Amino acid sequence: MKFIINKNELVSAISIVEKFVPSKTPMPTLAGIKFLATEDSLFLTATNLEMGIEYKIYGEDTGLLVKEKGNTVIESKILSNIIRRIDEDIIEFDCNENSANIKSSGFNMVLPCFNVMDFPEISKKNSLKTIKLKQGIFKDMIRKTIYARADEFSSRPQLTGVLVDCKDNILNMVALDGFRIAWSYVELDDLAEDFKVIVPGYTLLEISRIFKDEDESSFEFCYSAGSVEFATENFVITSRVLDGDFIDYKMIMNIEPKLVVKVDANKLRLAVEKAGIIARESSAGNLIKFNIAEGIIEVQAEAESGRISEKVACSTKGQEMLIAFNAGFFLDALKSISEPEIRLEFSDEAGPCIITPVENEHHKNFILPVRLKGEKL
To answer: Which residue intervals define the domain DNA polymerase III beta sliding clamp C-terminal in the entry (predicted)?
Structure first.
């Protein structure tokens, strides 16, 4: 295998692909990136057996010139660290079964190669269902939900992932950990079949790092039994899916509120942030209180190190209420909202709070309160 390529194009591709190389693995080949040179394209592949990526480099602007077709696997870490430090614009690869000779003007490096036959294939194009969506929209949905998933030590592994639920041509994305739910949904432009799949949280985190904000270009989300694919013009990412069931999030988030509050999202966020600094010092846990009366929501926290109270103007409809929440959970929800005004719905002091941007009904947060003992308004 022999090819010439623009250094910056290769560095850009490796910086994406190397994220899928495991830091520790009993299979030496997985520590490498597979290079496959065809007549006019170069494919870089990496996998940790949980998820994988195939990245395609092609086109005149990449400086790619394939002199000899072939494939090999090169250790990722050394290759990446050295390639990005080469001064020249053009790099040449000359590889055989055992080694890769990498050179540019005045520079030469030889690296050992792994047996390409030991490198596992990542499954692609076996999907039963496919939808198209803009990358920027999907990334925004991830941002609005992924923080609410359970941590990796959860006794319910499915909650470490995010539910992607397509129903009646609406794509829902839902994350929950038993104390809170984050839900975002969009209407699809093209007709799509119904499906449900739980995508691992770490897969969506990598997707969100690769996709660009407000990117109008589309990608294909493909689902088949046991795996999902995210396919763009330049790459295909595959991932296993998680087994298990999600609760009926739509039913749980359908409450009859006894109190509805509309408030400036940024002002409430700043008040919660300040109260959270005190709350973190409390032996009672990261607890903040909302004392809600007509036209005012008072954010309170106290600890051995001090006490804080701040009144935020709002509009209220319903009964007065004193209710407490985990400060971190509430702040996570507020940070996920970009709209200027939010609506808070409360069923009672022991019931959940539903947070919805006033200008965007397609994004909702559900947070369970912390019970207060012996306190009254």
So the answer is: 256-371
Other residues' Cβ atoms within 10 Å of the Cβ of residue 256: 8
**Fold annotation for 2-118:** DNA Polymerase III; Chain A, domain 2 (3.10.150)
Residues spanned by CATH 3.10.150.10 within the chain? 2-118, 129-250, 255-367
Q: CA nearest 180: which of 222, 208, 140, 151? A: 151
Give the pair of three-digit tokens for residue 334: 């507020």
Q: DSSP states of 240-284 as a string? A: E-B-S----HHHHT----SEEEEEEHHHHHHHHHHHHHHHTT-TT
d(CA 371, CA 137): 37
Whole-structure pTM value: 0.92
Could you tell me if 17 and 48 are in contact, meaning their C-beta atoms sit under 8 angstroms apart? no
CATH 3.10.150.10 fits 255-367, yes or no: yes
Fold of the 129-250 domain: DNA Polymerase III; Chain A, domain 2 (3.10.150)
pLDDT in tens, 230-285: 999 999 999 999 999 998 999 999 999 999 999 999 999 999 999 999 999 887 78
